[in-house]
Each structure stands twice: as C-alpha cells, then as structure tokens.
Write a structure and sequence with these properties.
It is a single chain. By secondary structure, this protein is an alpha/beta fold. The longest helix has 23 residues. Helix content is about 40%, strand content about 15%.
C-alpha cells in the first residue's frame, strides 16, 4: 500500500501577516498519477483533516502547528503500508515533515520513506543526512515517482532512474528528470482523495476571499532566472503552458462538482505569452461560467495592454500582482530581474484603469542593498501608491534553498542549515529576521519595511481616502476581504481571535 502524506502546516501570528496553509496541489497531482497507474494508495492530509486543531510550535510562541500530530497520522495508515511519500514544498515545513517521517519509521520500519517537493530538490544531501528519509524525488515528480514504485516492486536499482537522490554508501544524485512535454495529458489533481471541501468552506487559500475557491495550475515552470528564486533548481527554465481549453475544462468541471465560484492560480508566472492569455480569456468569456479568478502569487507585466486587460476583466479576473522587487537598477541587475520599469509602470496604469485589485511585491535587504538603493525603492513605492495600486507586500530577503543567492551565501559561510534557518521565512514581517546586506543592519531593515508600508498606505489614503476607509471598515466589522490589506484586518480582528480560542481549547 502506498501512503501519501501532507504534513501539518504552520500558522504565524506575529508581525504584519498571518500565513495560511493551502490545499496540497502538488501532492494531489502525484495522487492522480498513482491512481491512473492503478496502484492502491491512501492519502493522509494532516492539515485538511484537522483544520480546526492547532497547537504550539516548539520554542516559538508566535507559531502554531495546524493539523494532525505525527502519531495521529500514523494511526491512519494501514498495516500494509509499504511506500510512504511525504510532500514538502516550503522549507518552513521541513521540521514538521521530518518529525512525521521519524514517527512513520518507528511504526513502519520496513517502509520506503520518500520526500517530494521543492525543499528536498534544493537540499537533497542535507535531507538524506539528517532524517529518516530513504529517497528524495527531484523536480517534477509524477513520472519519477511511478518509476520509483516500479523499481521498488521489481527489486531494481534506483541508479538508472533520473530525478532521484538516495543513500548508497553516500548520497547518489541522478539529476533532474526531463521536464514533461505532454502537459495537457497530465491527469487532473485527485481531489477526491483529499478533504477539499474543508479547505473550500474555510477559505484556506492565499488569495483574497472571492468566494468558494479552488487552486489551479495553468502552466508549469518559469523562463526567468532571478537569483533569489529556487525555480531553476526545481523546474529548470522551461515554461510550459497548458492548452487554454484544457484549463477552462478543468474550471468548468470544478464549478459543477464542487460548486466553486473562484479560482486561485498557483502558477509561478502564468501570464508570459500574450497569445495564450488572449485565448484563455476568450474561452472563459465564451463559456460564461459566471466565475472569478485571481493570480495571488503574481505574474509578469510585459504582455499587458488595453486589449489583454479588457479581456481579463470580462473573463472574471479580479486581482493579481506584479513583482518589481526593487526600485534600484543596481539591485535589479544583480538579482537577474528582467524587468523594464517603464513597461511595468505602464502595465500598472492599465491594470488600475480597468479596476483590478493590483498588488506589487517588493523585497528589501538583498546582499548588495545600501541606504541609497532603499531610497530608490521608497520612491517607487510612493509612485505606486499615487498610481492607485491597491496593495503592497514588502518582505525582507531570505536566501531560499535552491536559489543562486542561497548557494552563494552558503559558500561564504553566511548560511547554516538547521531548523531555525528553515523556519526563518516565517519571520519575514518581524524584527527578528536577519539582514544579509552588509550595509544594512537588521534593525534598519525592519524599520525600513515598516516605513514603506506606512508610506504606501498613507499616500494611498490621501490619493483615495473613501475607498481605503470603506474597505477597512468592511473588513473590521463584516469580515469582508476586497484587497490584501483588508485581508490583514480580517486576520487581525477575526481569524486570529478564532485561532487563539482554538489554541486555548487545545491547551
């Protein structure tokens, strides 16, 4: 029997934002591949099966663990368990994934423990040297995992399978498997094996609340090579979009089966090709599904013009984000951010003009950050506010495992792998997050982050006081989310209180 496990999630109640675990889209794709291949399997979704259960994270008062405990996960596993696949896309979840693996190994010492997701792909040697895992699946996992199952069943060597790392007198790494070209033939996520209704009913997703929502992938990969991003290690730079009709087919299927009315696109950067965007929006308009959709993880701005924006609005798109990252050309060049600022600002003007809830992502504290570059970014933030951008997300740079900057800082001895480091991205919005910029102290970085937030929303209020005040009041008194900052007020005045009550009950 094959067991697929989504480990418990983390919630942060510190700083300026509450983090929320999402439906495990990657694991649902793996489940669909296993199902199509005819294997017997069972899913244990530790988050989805216990969304209302929270407990304290060891030695961290500001973090809570959401979901089943490791022992409860093991209790849900049948005695015939032979292979256990555990997902870990975000390094912040690595300590929890490792704890689950330890509990599984104690109860099922003969089972093969497999880790999948971006974390294992980024640091396979560390995973295999510091946990009970036997194998790490590298990169895109569906075909690789099926080949691993076949080799396990036939007693064959793993060394001929691309996309694996495993211990065999030392770590053997067979390299990334070739990216899939038949992306339209990948089976849809097997949400029937997950408590997806629990996620939908509680709006457990990373976008603003636009109603009953489902996560969706329209593309895989990203063609860009930003040095702070782990994309290249996981997906290479091959960007593959699905056929627009296939994407809309999936959306229509979910509308009918799960009665959803909104879709949260989880793509790294969905809108790269203008022709694709036009065809996708046109297909949505033709089918008239009466849905909304958003791109909370952000997208590129290059394809935006009046026609694309108009089609997006007509097709139901309500919110998305651009990622200028910095206002300093020196920083943009050093991080490999291929962005034409003039074109991005023109795309901002078009998006705001069409009424989208537009966010912009800013990152401060890159290794070569200086007071001068921060001032340039501050000027950009002010410009975005006056242009009518709805929200801004200012985060402090963290070297993501698998990124070029991570490898550089690790080689310089500035990154030491342990649980504190892996969990550190949860401190994005707090004073405890370290600075990796020699010219900027941690205290200055934190104060700059607060100032950029304050400056943006102060100028936004001066630019459009009625809209901002109305959104805040509706968030505070009615719990309505119309923008990211409204979502923050909902978290602060509603969600956090509910979670603390739950935590007190558990305690």
């Amino acid at each position: 029997m094959i067991i697929l496990i989504n480990p418990p999630g983390l919630k942060s109640f510190s700083g300026l934002q509450m983090h929320t675990p999402n439906p495990p889209l990657g694991l649902a794709y793996i489940a669909a591949a296993v199902k199509e291949a005819g294997h017997q399997y069972h899913v244990v979704d530790a988050v989805g099966e216990a969304l209302d259960r929270v407990r304290s994270y060891p030695a961290r008062e500001d973090l809570m663990i959401q979901g089943l405990s490791p022992s409860e996960i093991v209790q849900r596993m049948p005695a015939t368990t032979d292979v256990v696949g555990i997902t870990c896309n975000f390094s912040t979840l690595w300590p929890l994934a490792r704890m689950v693996a330890e509990e599984v190994q104690r109860s099922f010492p003969g089972a093969l423990l497999v880790l999948g997701g971006e974390h294992g792909t980024a640091v396979p040697d560390y995973v295999l040297g510091n946990s009970r895992f036997d194998v790490v699946v590298l990169g895109e996992g569906e075909i690789t995992f099926l080949k691993l199952l076949e080799a396990r069943r036939n007693g064959e060597s793993l060394s001929t399978i691309k996309g694996l790392a495993f211990n065999s007198g030392g770590v053997v790494n067979t390299g990334l498997s070739p990216r899939r070209r038949d992306i339209n033939n990948i089976p849809r996520p097997d949400w029937d094996s997950f408590p997806i209704e629990e996620y939908i009913a509680r709006h457990q997703s990373n976008g603003i609340n636009l109603g009953r929502s489902m996560p969706l992938l329209a593309t895989r990969g990203c063609p860009y090579r930003c040095t702070f991003c782990s994309n290249e290690s996981m997906w290479t730079t091959r960007y593959v979009p699905r056929d627009p009709k296939s994407v809309v087919d999936e959306m229509e299927f979910y509308v009918r089966k799960y009665d959803v009315s909104n879709f949260d696109f989880q793509d790294l950067t969905p809108a790269v090709k203008r022709r694709w965007a036009v065809e996708f929006c046109s297909e949505l308009i033709r089918r008239d599904l009466n849905i909304t959709w958003q791109m909370p993880s952000g997208t590129r701005a290059e394809i935006f013009d009046e026609k694309v924006a108009g089609l997006m609005a007509c097709s139901g798109c309500r919110a998305f984000a651009f990622a200028p990252e910095s206002g300093a050309p020196k920083i943009l060049q050093s991080i490999g951010k291929k962005v034409d600022m003039d074109k991005l600002l023109e795309a901002v003007r078009i998006a705001v003009g069409h009424g989208f809830k537009l966010s912009c992502f800013i990152v401060i504290g890159f290794p070569n950050e200086t007071p001068d570059t921060l001032r340039m970014t501050s000027r950009l933030v002010g410009k975005l506010a006056f242009m009518g951008v709805s929200d801004i997300a200012v985060t402090k740079f963290v070297p993501y495992p698998g990124s070029e900057l991570f490898r550089q800082l690790q080689a310089e001895g500035k990154v030491h792998l342990d649980d504190d480091f892996f969990v550190s991205p949860m401190d994005f919005y707090t004073a405890k997050a370290p600075s990796y910029a020699e010219a900027i102290s941690s205290k200055m970085l934190y104060r700059t982050m607060l100032w950029l937030f304050f400056k943006f929303y102060m100028l936004s209020f001066l630019h459009n006081p009625v809209t901002l005040a109305r959104n805040v009041l509706r968030a505070v008194f009615k719990g309505e989310e119309s923008t990211r900052y409204a979502k923050w007020f909902v978290d602060r005045f509603h969600t956090r209180r509910n979670w603390k009550k739950l935590a007190n009950k558990v305690g």
